[in-house]
């Protein structure tokens, strides 16, 4: 029986509801939410399923969910807002405001390198616990002292967790505030999202799980028009996933979140600025609504930030990635339907979450699930919702 989504859906966007409910019917969801804005008009705000598998607690309108690397877009926006105000030069040397960063040949690194995954520091060289990483100054100091994996600016590789302590150091040093505090105080105060969640938000939040509630039939409904990565890159990615010492695994697994994984309250309270946000779908979509409308950054600032700085095989993720200044652009790691491939931007999160904006289309969308999908063949839940949203714009 198809799960009936709760919430609101404009009849013109019924296709989004259909896709969302079909994912539940296909056993691809435990609990999830999706929200869409067309301009300033909220046209979709849907949720359904179970927020906590153990207790059976239902997902509600105000259920926040951990959204992994969707966080990076907000951290980047905070850094860009400070640059817009003249607090530092994006293309100037990091050492101008972080002198210690110049160690081991990193003196040529710019803030743009930190924001576009070109810094050469995708891995913390020494192990960090969740408790140690709760103080953003500690991982930042360790990264400043490290020798880079490559000379900053000469290659790009996804800084899965370290991005937050590199780009976040711009915010800490130039504003005197943590990323979470800056984001809340400057542009997200009215939104249901937190980079560093209070205990009451953690208590009502969705609990993440890897276990599928039913056998997936995703393979029966292949998505048309999805770019297929080169077979040799997929083979190399599979080899990297199987190798504990690969750059990919070292980047993704240090700091370790602890025995409860990313349900660990220590991580949720800390708000790692690379992967630490709790948010409702409506809250994250509201951020992109305001961003594309020019209410957070000036249009010229955003346009420059969306200019692709890097594109191609990613040293960490192996397959193709593309980045502006902190924002993902369409690539294998950020799948976007053809209608948005020239204009969409945003950030995906491990396990399936996504936030996206498209100023030309006037679209903002966010999707957050608690059933994590790490299928190496690709998780297409967000892609299908996006496809339906773009088609509904008409």
UniProtKB/TrEMBL annotation:
InterPro entries named among the record's database cross-references: Beta-lactam-related, Beta-lactam/transpept-like, Beta-lactamase/esterase
Residue span, Beta-lactamase-related domain: 20-389
Signal peptide extent: none
Record-linked Pfam families: Beta-lactamase
Annotated SUPFAM superfamilies: beta-lactamase/transpeptidase-like (SSF56601)
Region spans: Disordered: 208-233
UniProt cross-references to PANTHER family, sorted A to Z: BETA-LACTAMASE-RELATED, BETA-LACTAMASE-RELATED DOMAIN-CONTAINING PROTEIN
Protein name: Esterase
């Amino acid at each position: 029986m198809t799960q009936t989504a709760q919430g609101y859906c404009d009849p013109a966007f019924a296709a989004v509801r259909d896709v969302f409910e079909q994912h539940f019917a296909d056993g691809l969801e435990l609990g999830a939410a999706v929200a869409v804005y067309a301009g300033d008009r909220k046209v979709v705000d849907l949720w359904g399923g179970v927020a906590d598998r153990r207790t059976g607690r239902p997902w509600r309108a105000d259920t926040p969910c951990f959204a992994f690397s969707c966080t990076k877009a907000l951290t980047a926006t905070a850094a860009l807002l400070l640059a817009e105000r003249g607090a530092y030069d994006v293309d100037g040397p990091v050492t101008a405001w972080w002198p210690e960063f110049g160690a081991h040949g990193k003196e040529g690194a710019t803030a743009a390198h930190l924001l576009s995954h070109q810094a050469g520091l995708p891995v913390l060289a020494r192990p960090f616990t969740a408790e140690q990483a709760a103080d953003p100054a500690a991982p930042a100091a360790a990264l400043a002292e490290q020798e880079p994996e490559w000379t900053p600016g000469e290659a790009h590789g996804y800084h899965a967790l370290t991005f937050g302590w590199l780009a976040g150091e711009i915010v800490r040093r130039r504003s005197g505030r943590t990323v979470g505090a800056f984001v809340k105080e400057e542009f997200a105060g009215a939104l249901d999202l937190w980079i560093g969640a209070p205990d009451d938000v953690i208590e009502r939040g969705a609990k993440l799980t890897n276990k599928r509630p039913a056998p997936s039939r995703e393979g029966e409904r292949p998505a048309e028009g999805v770019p297929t990565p080169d077979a040799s890159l997929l083979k190399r990615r599979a080899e990297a996933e199987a190798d504990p010492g690969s750059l990919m695994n070292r980047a993704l697994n240090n700091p370790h979140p602890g025995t409860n994984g990313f349900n660990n309250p220590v991580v949720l309270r800390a708000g790692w600025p690379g992967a630490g946000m709790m948010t409702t779908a409506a809250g994250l979509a509201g951020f992109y609504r305001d961003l594309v409308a020019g209410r957070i950054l000036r249009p010229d600032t955003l346009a420059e930030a969306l200019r692709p700085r890097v594109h191609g095989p990613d040293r960490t993720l192996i397959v193709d990635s593309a980045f502006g200044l902190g924002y993902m652009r369409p690539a294998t790691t950020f799948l976007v339907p053809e209608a948005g491939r020239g204009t969409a931007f945003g950030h995906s999160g491990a396990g399936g979450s996504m936030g996206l904006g498209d100023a030309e289309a006037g679209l903002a969308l966010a999707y957050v699930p608690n059933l994590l999908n790490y299928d190496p063949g690709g998780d297409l839940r967000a892609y299908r919702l996006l496809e339906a949203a773009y088609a509904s714009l008409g």
